[in-house]
Sequence to fold (336 residues):
Amino acid sequence: MAKMMYRDAVRSTIFEEMERDDRVVVLGEDIVGGMGTAGGPEAIGGIWSTSTGFYDRFGPDRVIDTPISESAIVGAAGGLALAGKRPVAELMFADFIGVSLDQIWNQIAKFRYMFGGKTLCPAVIRMPYGGGFNAAAQHSQSVHHFLTAMPGLKVVMPSTPEDVRGLLREAIRGDDPVMFLEHKALYGVSGEVPDGDYTIPFGHARLSRAGEDLTLVATGLMVSRCEAAADALAKDGIGCDVIDLRTTSPLDEEAILDSVEVTGRLVVVDEAPQRCSLATDISALVAQKAFASLKAPIEMVNAPHTPVPFAKELELAYLPSAEKVEAAARRVLGWR
Fold:
């Protein structure tokens, strides 16, 4: 079992899939080194260093530096997919989906349905998301709830290098459009990665902590915040299920409901603001399908309904923390 960083898991998985299948192509802004560059020392592999070495190995026909146009990037990915390729497109920041919303929402998400299943659109759109880097309101948002609400898309949010490998392979080899969200704060996190050519099927959550007193549900970076809260609660003899959803569409409803039926208490942690968020969706699901099992009101730990602040102190206050999760858990546990 090897140990690697999250960003290296992204890079190595795409590299291996490009070697395995010559239909896999990558495209995005500066993924070589800048529009028109010829690789070499300028081939930085994008600002997140997730495509380093691609150009030298696969050349300009399969590693495509694009203009600064997200609508063109996603539109080209959709066209390539319809033509039989397996594109992996990178948006430099997830916040920029607004520029390519028609291509995502009205085109690639609907191709298979609109053509009666006679065509496939195996496009993977990768996008770094989330706060914690003081990148201000236009470069720090969590947009998964928008994408999850769009029928026809699969939405993936890995929290570990191991899951990056398994889920990204599954995305590239699948026949549906996939929105693959990578939290910026996780790129430097290291973890063990199993050997071999493994995939992780979508819609199967991971139980990272087990307990019978409380259920914590999260995605991406928020999983580690829940794990820290669960570890703190464990010192007081409180056992928590921590459910890492892995994918929000499809959603592993069974894992959530089975856990709540045992614990009777639920805290959902979501980096996006609460209104119309993933947290509200999961809370409604549990209230509808497991209400009789609840021993206390559901708690949601979200960012406030404001733009992401730039100042470091304000951004720290804005984001859900392990301390906020633990406080919400104790409120649920102490409810009478």
About this structure: The chain has two domains: 2-193, 206-334. The longest helix spans residues 6-20. The chain has twelve helices and 14 strands. The chain has a mean pLDDT of 95.
